[in-house]
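Query structure, 256 tokens:
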């Protein structure tokens, strides 16, 4: 092994005095350095392209945020399908960060989190979803968080396992907002929902989120429903039915 490879890894040692184990470790570290160089170049190229995407003609504009949950879902699903089964969690975490920093090239995402019950879970869910590039802060008023999201400058993450029926407003006061993601225990129902002024065409493919007057037993059409909360005859639920936000069924969004 050449000195040019060994010296950067073991600068304080004489290559001639290195053991076979140290030589092998130096070779592995050199291989990692080469991979890091390639990853850095590719990542910076990806960021540059992401900045151009924000200016593309098919990007959301006007009152909607820059978020494209449908595109993020497609990218993540494609990557996870190609990942080794034992590395899926690591790959998902990495790609969430990559997508988050790509989005930041179009302007830092602002996220307001309201969760009086188990706030750490809601905050961690938001951090995992939007990455360290996003500016995430806890707030005390769900209506203020909704108003912030309605301005189109950012999104709100709000807990649903509370006594505050903020979600009823998605059918009335905040009808311009859509639910586009949910956070909670793995494989379980979401304990908080992400809400934003999302282009309806950019919502992810998944269960619809509905706010209806009545129970969560379903409408007899065969689609299952999962109740998340109730308040004075109103019900927040998930359904397998393919619905359009704003329609008569009370659809207010979708989560992957």
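Result returned for the query:
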């Amino acid at each position: 092994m050449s000195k040019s490879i060994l010296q950067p890894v073991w600068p304080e040692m004489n290559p001639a005095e290195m053991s076979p184990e140290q030589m092998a470790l130096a070779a592995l570290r050199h291989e990692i350095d080469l991979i890091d160089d390639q990853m850095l170049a590719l990542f910076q190229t990806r960021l540059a392209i992401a900045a151009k995407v924000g200016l593309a003609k098919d990007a959301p504009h006007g009152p909607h945020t820059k978020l494209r949950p449908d595109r993020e879902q497609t990218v993540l699903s494609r990557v996870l399908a190609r990942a080794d089964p034992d590395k899926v969690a690591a790959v998902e975490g990495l790609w969430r960060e990559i997508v988050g920093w790509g989005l930041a090239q179009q302007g830092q995402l602002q996220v307001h989190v309201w969760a009086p019950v188990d706030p750490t879970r809601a905050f961690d869910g938001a951090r995992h979803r939007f990455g360290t590039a996003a500016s995430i802060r806890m707030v005390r008023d769900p209506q203020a968080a909704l108003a912030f999201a309605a301005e189109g400058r950012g999104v709100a993450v709000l807990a649903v396992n509370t006594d505050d029926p903020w979600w009823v407003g998605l059918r009335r006061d905040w009808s311009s907002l859509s639910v586009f993601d949910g956070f909670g225990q793995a494989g379980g129902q979401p304990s908080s929902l992400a809400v934003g002024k999302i282009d309806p065409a950019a919502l992810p493919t998944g269960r619809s989120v509905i706010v209806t007057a009545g129970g969560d037993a379903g409408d007899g059409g065969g689609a299952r429903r999962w109740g998340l909360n109730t308040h004075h005859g109103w019900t927040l639920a998930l359904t397998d039915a393919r619905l359009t936000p704003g329609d008569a069924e009370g659809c207010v969004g979708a989560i992957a």
